[in-house]
Amino acid sequence: MLARGSRRLAGRRAGALDVLATVLVLVLLVLAAVGPWLAPHDPYRADPATALLPPGAGHLLGTDDSGRDILSRLLAGTRATLLSSVAVVVLSAAVGAAVATLAAASPRWLDEVIMRVVDMFLAFPSMVLALGVAAALGPSLTSVVVAMVIAMWPATARLVRSVMRETMAAQYVEAARLTGMSRRRAMLRHVLPNSLDSLYVQLGLDVSGAIVLIAGLAFLGVGAAPPSADWGSMVAAGREYVTTAWWVAFFPGAAITVAAVAFGLFGDALRTRLDPTVVRG
Amino acid sequence: MSAGGPLLEVRDLAVRVRESEGPRLVRDVSFEIAAGERLALVGESGSGKSTVAKALVQLDRTVEVSGSVRFDGRELVGARPGDLRRVRGSGIAMIFQDPMTALNPVRRVLDQVAEPLVIRGVPRREARRLAVAMLDRLGVADAARRAHDYPTAFSGGMRQRVVMAAALVGGPRLLVADEPTTALDVRVQEQVLDLIEEQSRELGLAVLLITHDLGIVAGLADRVAVMRSGALVETRPVDELFADPHHPYTRGLLESVPRIDAAPGQRLRTVADAVDDTRESADA
Amino acid sequence: MTRFVLRRVGLAVLTVWGVATLVFLMTKLIPGDAARVAAGRTATAEQIEAARQRLGLDRPMVEQYLHYLGGLLHGDLGWSASTKQPVAVDLQVAFPVTLQLVLVAMVFTVVVAIPLGTFAALRHGSAADAATRLVAILGGGVPVFWLALVLQWLFAVRLGWTPISGANGYGLDPPVVTGATLVDSLLAGSPQMFADSAAHLVLPALALSAPFLAVVVRNVRSTMLGVLGTDYASFAVAKGVTTWRLVVRHALPAAASSTLTILGMQLGFMLGAALLVEAVFAMPGLGTYLYTAILNQDTFAVLGGVLVTGAVFVLAGLVVDLIQMAIDPRVRSSHLAHA
């Protein structure tokens, strides 16, 4: 009885979480669109007089070492954070799916070679691979996006290729082939759409992962060049003031967390709703 | 040991999924088994036979068991976990349908067979000796050496022997065999059934054989209990039941067993046919 | 069996070669004159020319590549323009620090996650499920460097329970033998140094394991649920075993192999995250090294570190596979069947 009650409660709580995640994602999207206009101060104007002010009436979240308003900088940085993460996920999904399709349509030996190369990429922890590429390209948001795509496409390629392998062997594809459908057509009509479904349900979680990874790269110094208002770089800038001005690092980090968790929960909710292979319990 | 009374006495056994108001999986099941007696519990899949088997020692934690199960005079429903554990293995042993999945793939056969002894405090060396002896007794060739292998090294029939060795090594007085031959091929099926009967005679072991196959019941069981939709329909000595089934469902079950002496081309009847017959005669 | 081991080792060697090739290709991504980058920001024209000669940049691509691979075989990971010494020498100092941090965090993760996951599986119900799902997503969403900063602020700055940063207190650095402070202080026979090294590791290890804890708990839970639902678990219960024995003797050994796979995968992510955590706590490991190198635009030092991390990750995968083969008869027999 008790367990049943808590299960019902859990069901409702999960539902409430999904709603909360959706609302947060929508709010983030709105902020990305209009954030700069909502900023109470100029996010870029340095003023030594207002340096390292604690959170208070004039500056809700305090100011950084150059005297810039942290709230305004967060609002200004929302768009770059979301745009870069979404761009990374969409681009790497596209590249991964394209390579997987190419491999699946290739003769066996070429398929084997392509997937071996994918494995080489996967031999790196994605953070480290992206770090190397971004460091080589030099600090800029573009090089971070390129580096992240290079780091993330192999996982997509692996996923799509393995789903394709399963789908190709499925009976309905075989049935379609037996009615005289060509291999290429069967791939385009049946195998590809099916494999992409497994990709879509992954997108929300991928955006969450990309937000955290991009912030991590920025924290290590490969990211948007200063003085742009990048969340990860803002945390890095606050690192030195952890003993004296905690808010400089705290709020940007909290913003990253909220954004990543929101997209993570949103993605997870989407997956449980859309993916027929996930058993809901 | 209680003098006179049956070894196992089941009264009004009912089983339902825990914390649900759904229908009971099994209801009003009553039967008894005397020491050394062999009772077959038959029915189609889904009739609740296995649920009854597991409910005797409350193996399935997701269900709630009510009614009464007395083993050797002691009540098991509502018994303390420690008392229940003592009955499991050393009082009532169980073997399962699929010997391929009943053995832990990452533990050596010897450890798995000796376990019922080890957990009762038998010294390891002695437990291992007894385990090898039991494997040998059940016809595992070269038992002393093969006992050190993992289950993957054994064939299906051999695994069922290993499973039986693990079940019997603790000296139980009742063996519950839940579809012990279903997953095996025909030739091996017979060997396993012979083995059960042989051990039952030699050890004075009572057997509850759960099966959907009336064909294997005749040679092995003393009495048969027929189960349908979670309830018992009749319980009778085996030759009586075969000669003159009372319940139409039992008749149906019997007629659906392929027979060598049937006329060529005669259609095998299904249980549904028999039940339809009764419905028609009732309508008429 | 031997054949499988050889094939698996061969695959690892091939992958390390692939990793090296990728890093070589990364050097080709450097915009402008790579020799100028390799020589450092303050280099003179002669120094740049020397770097060009050293890297063979004036020779054909294939020759450069072979030259690079040949260098690697001799342990040449490149030259750091900022520390003015071979990258290999720098990494010999830095890498053990990182490895120690990752291993301590891994041990911590395992020690906490396995009992928690097992407990959740035994008491499984949807409330617990919802909680683990939430915790897993929170764990995945919290940037590890931010968590590290928050822990640092709370436990070191506010509460003063742990040292703020670094690997050792003043005068308490153990003489360097392996580079891992815990091992070195034991070798030095100094309980005081050991305690100091451990105190400096608590917060970084805690921060590093947090995101992985949730993932591993969730995986242990689902693996254990699967194992507890098997026939052989039921059979063990029918034999009269206690819940404790069921878990310890039957379920954990059966769940070990898939848990190990998960841990092996996490190891790579942990290496990446360790770089960030180190940068926060100023631990003199690979992360701090890379951070400084990036700051100094010392690209070849960065790529040397990247290469070593990739290679270590490949080796870790190899070790996990071999351990798995040693402990799991199922894996062993399936490989025998295919060999």
Automatic annotation (TrEMBL), chain A:
- Residues covered by the ABC transmembrane type-1 domain: 78-267
Report the transmembrane regions from the record.
20-39, 82-105, 117-137, 143-160, 199-225, 245-266
The record's annotation in InterPro entries points to:
BP-dependent_transpt_permease (IPR050366), MetI-like (IPR000515), MetI-like_sf (IPR035906), OppC_N (IPR025966)
**In which domain of life is the source organism classified?**
Bacteria
Q: Which compartment or compartments is the protein found in?
A: Cell membrane
Is the Transmembrane helix keyword given for this protein? yes
Record's keyword terms, sorted: Cell membrane, Membrane, Transmembrane, Transmembrane helix, Transport
Lipid bilayer topology:
Multi-pass membrane protein
Check the record and name the Gene3D superfamilies matching this protein. Answer: MetI-like
Task: Please tell me whether the keyword Membrane is annotated for this protein.
Answer: yes
Q: Which family does it belong to?
A: Belongs to the binding-protein-dependent transport system permease family.
The protein's name in its UniProt record = Peptide ABC transporter permease
From TrEMBL, chain B:
Xref: Pfam families: ABC_tran, oligo_HPY
Q: Which CDD domains match?
A: ABC_NikE_OppD_transporters
The record's GO molecular-function terms, alphabetically, read: ATP binding
- Coiled-coil stretches are none
What coarse category fits the chief subcellular location reported for this protein?
membrane
Gene3D superfamilies annotated for this entry?
A: P-loop containing nucleotide triphosphate hydrolases (3.40.50.300)
What UniProt keywords are attached to this protein's entry?
Answer: ATP-binding, Cell membrane, Membrane, Nucleotide-binding, Transport
Q: Which residues form the signal peptide?
A: none
Q: Where is the ABC transporter domain?
A: 8-254
Q: Where in the cell is it found?
A: Cell membrane
What is the superkingdom listed in this entry's lineage? Bacteria
Q: How does it sit in the membrane?
A: Peripheral membrane protein
The entry sums up its family as follows: Belongs to the ABC transporter superfamily.
Designated name of the protein: Peptide ABC transporter ATP-binding protein
Organism encoding this protein = Luteimicrobium album
TrEMBL record, chain C:
Key words, A-Z: Cell membrane, Membrane, Transmembrane, Transmembrane helix, Transport
Membrane topology per the record? Answer: Multi-pass membrane protein
Segments spanning the bilayer are 9-27, 101-122, 134-155, 198-217, 267-294, 300-323
Positions of the ABC transmembrane type-1 domain: 95-324
The places in or outside the cell where this protein is found are: Cell membrane
Per its UniProt entry, which superkingdom is the organism in? Bacteria
Q: Which family does it belong to?
A: Belongs to the binding-protein-dependent transport system permease family.
Protein name, entry field: Peptide ABC transporter permease
Q: What taxonomic ancestry is recorded?
A: Bacteria, Bacillati, Actinomycetota, Actinomycetes, Micrococcales
